[in-house]
Amino acid sequence: MHDRANKNRATEDMMQGTSAAVPPARAGKVRSMAKTLLALALLAGCAAGCGLVDAVFDGFKHAKAVENDLVAMVGVKPAVGFNWHNGRLTSVTVTFPSLLQDKPLHELADAARAAVGKEFKQRADDVVLAFSLGPSETPAVQADQTQGKNLP
Questions:
Q1: Structural Rg of the chain based on CA atoms
Q2: Nearest Cα to 129, choosing from 119, 115, 141, 139?
Q3: Among candidates 115, 111, 113, 119, which has minimal Cα distance to 58?
Q4: CA angle 24, 28, 29 (to 5 degrees)
Q5: Distance (Å, whole) CA 34 – CA 113
Q6: CB 91 within 8 A of CB 83
Q7: Which end of the chain is more exposed for a tag (fewer CB within 10 A), N or C?
């Protein structure tokens, strides 16, 4: 009978060792780390699932490739921006730094469409061709008068 009591006590001691409570300070860190890991896993899963990773990382590479193609075709480097929506390329904007007098507009448009289609490897819903005109040429006197007024 004495041996049975010792076995029960030993079994209780072992069980207590395996189910010992985590100290409160450490439990907070463990919970915080678990929440952080869960949030990161959810974010990674969502980003991979909706094509966001491709849009962010590869989209900039595609835009740079369009810029390089247009420099080779036209001789002027444009700025290229893009917009994705649910994995679909909705628009690409090609902005040249100034008006190009030596190239007809239809040639620039054809070159931009061709470069976008080739480098993004999918059809864009809209390709926007733009030119930067620089600052407006409002006389300084008129600009000073309109400052501080709410215009309709």
A1: 32
A2: 115
A3: 119
A4: 120
A5: 48
A6: yes
A7: C
Contacts 24+ apart (CB under 8 A), 133-137: 133/98, 133/99, 134/98
State the average pLDDT for the chain.
77
Give per-residue pLDDT as tens, 21-73: 555 666 666 677 777 777 776 666 655 555 566 556 788 999 999 999 999 99
Four-residue CA torsion sign, 95, 101, 105, 107:
negative
Using CA atoms, how far apart are residues 31 and 12, in angstroms rounded to an integer? 28
How far lies 114's CA from each of 62, 119, 121, in Å? 13, 9, 11
Both tokens assigned to 108: 């620039």
CA 38 from chain centre, in angstroms, equals: 21
As a whole number of angstroms, the distance between CA 86 and CA 40 comes to 21
Pair of tokens at residue 61: 């590479």
